[in-house]
């Protein structure tokens, strides 16, 4: 397990990108994890330290980390920090091969329906977000709110629903 210091962390935001800064950072971290440059158990820089090192807002780093945690890339341990998750590495070869076969079949079926890989990815992301929202609604405590981001149908693209 390595501790990645904020000083050795490299990230160059793209000023010409239409993506918000938090999403650029999130994508960069997800790439480093997926590519194996950050290994399961590695500790990411503390949020405040990384924000200072990159000269960006604390909330930007926090939002990136929260998004990565939501997607299972990292795990936050209260009082200790944020660590690269080992969810994928804990699966044995047999499970990984089964998942790969399922993904291959799914992609082939989507391709046969006329979807490109990018279209399939976008559809999958939307579907996963819908499943997460459904699960959150099922666990929702009366009196709490779920903020749902939707296409810009409304004046600001945000709908708030109360339990």
Report on the structure:
The chain has 163 residues and is mainly α. It has 2 domains: 6-88, Arc Repressor Mutant, subunit A (Orthogonal Bundle); 93-162, no CATH class. Helix content is 50%, strand content 11%. It has helices spanning 21-34, 47-54, 58-70, 87-90, 93-112, 117-139, and strands at residues 74-77, 81-84, 145-149, 158-162. The strands form 2 sheets. The chain has a two-stranded antiparallel ribbon. A two-stranded antiparallel ribbon has the order 3-4. A hairpin with a 3-residue loop joins strand 1 and strand 2.
Salient structural properties:
163 residues; mainly alpha; Arc Repressor Mutant, subunit A; 2 domains; two-stranded antiparallel ribbon; two-stranded antiparallel sheet; 6 helices; 50% helix; globular; DNA-binding
Topology readout:
Blueprint: H1 21-34, H2 47-54, H3 58-70, E1 74-77, E2 81-84, H4 87-90, H5 93-112, H6 117-139, E3 145-149, E4 158-162
Antiparallel strand pairs: 1-2, 3-4
Helix pairs in contact: 1-3, 2-3
| Main sheet specs | 2 strands, antiparallel
Q: Which geometry do the CA atoms define? A: globular
Radius of gyration: 18 Å
List segments where confidence is low: pLDDT < 50 over at least 5 consecutive residues. Answer: none
**What is the CATH architecture term of the largest domain?**
Orthogonal Bundle
CATH superfamily of the largest domain: Winged helix-like DNA-binding domain superfamily/Winged helix DNA-binding domain
- Broad CATH class of the largest domain: Mainly Alpha
InterPro entries: Tscrpt_reg_HTH_GntR, WH-like_DNA-bd_sf, WH_DNA-bd_sf
Protein name: GntR family transcriptional regulator
GO molecular function, one term: DNA binding
Organism: Adlercreutzia mucosicola
